[in-house]
Each structure stands twice: as structure tokens, then as C-alpha cells.
Specification:
Two copies of one chain form a homodimer.
Chain A lengths: L1 E9 L16 H13 L6 E2 L8 E11 L8 H8 L4 E9 L10 E11 L12 E3 L5 H9 L3 E4 L14 E12 L2 E8 L6 H13 L7 H8 L14 E8 L6
Parallel strand pairs in A: 3-10, 5-6
Antiparallel strand pairs in A: 1-3, 1-4, 2-3, 5-9, 5-10, 7-8, 8-9
Helix pairs in contact in A: 3-4
Function (chains A, B): Formation of pseudouridine at positions 38, 39 and 40 in the anticodon stem and loop of transfer RNAs.
GO biological process, one term (chains A, B): tRNA pseudouridine synthesis
Family (chains A, B): Belongs to the tRNA pseudouridine synthase TruA family.
Chain lengths: 250, 250
């Protein structure tokens, strides 16, 4: 028996998110099915991040256990032969049997893309949020900086989340404009339900001039979802990658 | 009566190219239909570039004549309300009645995108050509430079083209690598059928080390399609834009 870690990229457009659910096809379900066919075992993967419907990933992480005698690094090739074009394993490797993708210290990086111009660009419609309202990136950058560090992010937590604590640490933020493309990058040790999308929606309101950058502090203090801006659309969001810290240092 | 020029962006994935044809839906056909509905007239647009099935555009150009009393610049807004999400007018403007998008001096810019890494990235699968064969961009750049200037591009002309002359001028070329993304940009005063895709396919063979960069000169001299490399897939190609030179200088 061995545990294999998969780094999974997907186009979330046609999926009801990552996690298996009764009302629609999910990335995890497709992965489980092809892994079960490949191994001849009943495989249920454990995922690191339960991305929402329409959210994309370059590097989500999942693990599974198998008795199949295939070297860990070969699973990427074998799976990519079977998976649909909108899911591609980027890497597979054997990990210790106690490696759990959620109960481990990790850093996740998310990217939210905004297309800010007069009219939408068809080839980017599934991978960025379009707005013609001119956004001031400098203001968004200032506002994002207020989010760095350890804070209670309850105001940025979507309804329906079941968590003990809404305290999280954002390690760094970056807001960049290249022509009419704005990219927001956030790295943190954990994110609440819809947190990056609510942050993105709030930063867009600040970029549009509806509130000054310092308004972020009031939102944090309010500890109330209604104090923050709208949840930005899923299509703009990509889970870029997850880095795990070493557990053992000998 | 006035003539209106449209700058049209589209995702070519789901179209049988630009030009109206009996065997499938085309961008021009969809445009004609919505323009006819909008104006209450029978509109047939004239396009600048007859892009192939699967090829994308950021700035193809089309003109049409109408008696509708709407200012030229308003057609973009009115059309975008009606068009499907994969076609978006970027600009509309009134032009002189004798403005013809093909019989005018113009410069076209095409971009061919290659994703060069171990495994494909699902979110880019419709907008770039994937290859895991490592490509040497410096060799591709040297090879591309040999194509600049006026040449007989018969070796780079797809079968079935009906043209009087296969002489064209390439104004400049650029081959750029950013991480695992390679972008080839070509600007010229006119392109033969499949020319940019055959150039891209040939440059990829040179980048892979199958031929030295100077081999491009032999291909040009051969004046034979068989001397060049394969036609690169349509999905990697985008018509970036068309710039028209002023006709009248007073």
C-alpha cells in the first residue's frame, strides 16, 4: 500500500466544483472514476482545496492510497491518457502514508483576474472577470496591504461555512496591471469559504472609488459579511498552487 | 446610406471560420444575422481576413452599408447586446463609402502561441498549441528573421489557395519565451492561405532541432509546400489586429 500525491490542474468552467456532490459532475468525481478504472480498486481521493463551481486550478492537490505496483511518478502519465481535456495531472509522487493534504501546514496561492476595458474579449471570458468600470490599481494595492498578517476574516467569509475560527493569516498580496488586465495574487496559510472572491469583490469596489482603501480596516472590524463587498464571479479565480512545509526536520 | 467599419474579436473554437459557408456556422454568418435584425435590412458584411476554423481574433475588420440612422460608434454597443458571448465588437465607426477592408493597404499582425512544458494546462487548451518537445527559442528567432522582407512564400502557402502571386512582405517577426509560454508574432502586408500556421509549424521543427535556422532559406528557394514543415493547429493562432494606411494625403 502506498499514498500518491497528485498536483491537479483543471478548467473549472464545466464542473460543479471540486468536491463530489449529488447535483452535478465534479472534478473529484471524474478523478476518482478514472483512478478506480486504472487501478481496479475503489479509489476515493482526498483533496486539499474544495474549489467552487467555475473556479480553476493550476495546482490543487489530492492524495489516494493504492496497492497498484506502479511508481508514484508514473500515475501522471497514465491518468492524463484517460482524463478529459479539462483536467490534467501536473505531477504525481509517492508521499508518506500519513501525509494529509488538509491537516498539514501549507501555503496556498490564489489569483483573481480582471479584464478592465470597454468591451469583453471573447477568448478570456471563462478565465477572467470583465468590468468596464475603470479601476484604480494603486488604491486596490493599498487596500490589499491592509489584509496582510493575521486577522479575523469573518467579514470575508461566505454564508454557510462551518469553521471553528475565522482567524487566518495572509502572507502577502500583489495587485498588478498589465495593459487592461489586472491580476490580484494572495498567498496565505488557509482561506475561508469564498474568502478570495469576497476580497476581490471588495477590492474592485475600492478600485472603482466607492470607498477609500482604509475602509478595509472598518470591514475587518465589523466581523460581519454584510460589511464587505460582493462575492466576485468564480470564473476569475484560479488556485495557483499549494506549498507544504516539511513535517520532519532531522 | 453610410458604411460602418467593425473591429471584431472572437473565440474561433466553435466556428467554422470567418466566411459564410454551407457546412457549418461561421462568425460572419452570425454577424450578418444580428446586423440584419438590428437594422431591419439585409446586411452582408465584407470581412478583411477569412480566418480558418478554430482561429481566434482580437481585431478582425468588417464593413457593411446601412440606411439606419444610428451613429457609427453606437453599433458596437447595440450589437454586443445581441451577439453570443464568443463574438464581441471592439469598435465601430463610420468610414468613407469606398473603404474596402481587403483592397486597401494594410498591415496585419498575427500571434501564434505555444505552451511548451511537460503536461498541458487545461485553461489554455483552446488558445495555444501544446508540445512537450523542448523548443530552442533562440533558433526559432534566427529562423524567423530570415523570413523578414519581400519573398516568394509559395512554400508557405496551403494547398487550394487561388492567388495570382505568392510574393508577400513580412515587416517583422518576434519570438518570445515567458516561462513555458512561447509567442510568435508576425506583422506583414498580407498573408497567404495557412501561411502563419505553416511558418509556425516550420519554426517549431527548427526549435526542436530537426533543422538549423538557415534551413528556412532552402525552404523559401524550393517554392514548394512540401519543403516546409507541417501546418500548426488552428487553436494557437490569433489575428491580433489590422492597421489601414491613410489613402488620401492632402
Amino acid at each position: 500500500m502506498k499514498r500518491v500525491k497528485l498536483t491537479v490542474a483543471y478548467d473549472g468552467t464545466n464542473y460543479c466544483g471540486w468536491q463530489v456532490q449529488p447535483n452535478g459532475i465534479t472534478v473529484q468525481e471524474v478523478l476518482n472514476r478514472h483512478l478506480s478504472e486504472l487501478t481496479g480498486e475503489t479509489i476515493e481521493t482526498i483533496g486539499a482545496s474544495r474549489t467552487d463551481a467555475g473556479v480553476h486550478a493550476l495546482g490543487n492537490v489530492a492524495v489516494f492510497d493504492t496497492s497498484m505496483r506502479m511508481p508514484g511518478e508514473k500515475f501522471s502519465y497514465a491518468l492524463n491518457q484517460r482524463l478529459p481535456e479539462d483536467i490534467r495531472i501536473q505531477k504525481s509522487e509517492e508521499v508518506p502514508l500519513d501525509f494529509h493534504p488538509r491537516y498539514r501546514d501549507s501555503e496556498k496561492t490564489y489569483e483573481y483576474r480582471i479584464l478592465n476595458r470597454r468591451f469583453p474579449v471573447p477568448t478570456e471570458r471563462f478565465y477572467s472577470h470583465f468590468t468596464y468600470v475603470p479601476l484604480d490599481v494603486e488604491k486596490m494595492r493599498q487596500a490589499a496591504a491592509f489584509l496582510e498578517g493575521e486577522h479575523d476574516f469573518q467579514s470575508f467569509c461566505g454564508a454557510g461555512a462551518q469553521v471553528k475560527s475565522t482567524v487566518r493569516t495572509i502572507l502577502d498580496t500583489e495587485v498588478k496591471r498589465e495593459g487592461d488586465r489586472i491580476t490580484l495574487r494572495i498567498r496565505g496559510n488557509g482561506f475561508l469559504y469564498n474568502m478570495v472572491r469576497i476580497i476581490s469583490g471588495t477590492l474592485m469596489e475600492i478600485g472603482a472609488g466607492n470607498y477609500p482603501p482604509e475602509h478595509i480596516l472598518e470591514i475587518l472590524q465589523a466581523k460581519n459579511r454584510k460589511a464587505a463587498g460582493p462575492t466576485a464571479p468564480a470564473r476569475g479565480l484560479t488556485l495557483v498552487g499549494i506549498v507544504y512545509k516539511e513535517k520532519e526536520t532531522l
